[in-house]
Amino acid sequence: MDHLRSLRYFLVVAEELHFGHAADRLGIAQPPLSQRIKRLEAELGAKLFDRGRRVTLTEAGEVLRTEARDLLARWERMTSLVAKAERGELDALRAGVPPELPGRVLAAILTAFAERCPGIRLDLQELTTAEQTRLLADRELDAGLLQLPVDVVGLDLGPAIDTPLGVLLPRDSPLARASSLALADLAGEGLVHAPRAAAPGSYDALLRTCWEHGFRPAAVRHARNPEFALGLVLAGHGVAFEPTARKEPWVVWRPLREQLDARMAFAWPSSSPHPQAATLAEIAAEVLRDDGVSRIVPPDPSGARPWDVFYDRGHTGTGRECLGRLEPS
Questions:
Q1: Where are the domains of the chain?
Q2: For 68, which of 141, 223, 313, 317 is 20 to 30 Å away at the CA?
Q3: How many CB atoms are located within 10 Å of the residue 143 CB?
Q4: pLDDT at 181 over 90
Q5: Superfamily name with CATH number, domain 91-156+269-297
Q6: Which pLDDT value is given to residue 87?
């Protein structure tokens, strides 16, 4: 039996919940449609529809509807990729990167990818982690540079990169006199940070770490754009965590004594991925590592995913317990 066709027929019946209407949509007679559904039920060993006065899906039918949609979408994606590759039309890789990624890093990734994959156009889009995960799930992106930790069910991950963070603060701040700072030194200061909606996992983990080390921000001001964040810092609305110093005369950057890292990794769909998605992940990891401070996170021998070692696993909280007083009104 043609299983893909049977699943397509099943989905039409599941949408119409009427065999006659489904047959009309499919352009076939009703008896052959009913017979095909019965053969499918026999092969699966499960009743898919209750055929009373009204046709309804059984619990097994509900499960099959979800799985069949995913399977057919993956099949169509695979056949499309294969056909494009055969015609030489596989010329674009759609990838997302976070808005705060430095321009020099973007340029280096684009240049290195063009050298290694000259026949593929890299289409980079400026997107938050939350936006990227949604578009990856909808197959509107082929790869995304995500800020970890994040739920990546259904995705494969490339090498994870840790970048140490320091503190950006006004030059006239009393804290600027120190050559390095502890998180506890920031007590009483506000915090300027990207909105939680952009990357909930990393937002919660960072705030949790601040609390654990004695820094409970007086307020959290949200800034999507790095220049807006700089303006808030200059205006005295808080400090910000950034990986490197800025060439700006009115602010200073100080390293932290505690280990506070920003972790990122490229992710791509596990099923029918773009053939060059993993290559892009490797290139990005090499570029990020070569900044002189970042490092590739070694694979965990226990098989743990990258976010499992992002912060001390001895603390089991999510970080959300502290947000009620920190979120701005």
A1: 3-86, 91-156+269-297, 166-259+317-325
A2: 141
A3: 30
A4: yes
A5: Periplasmic binding protein-like II (3.40.190.10)
A6: 62
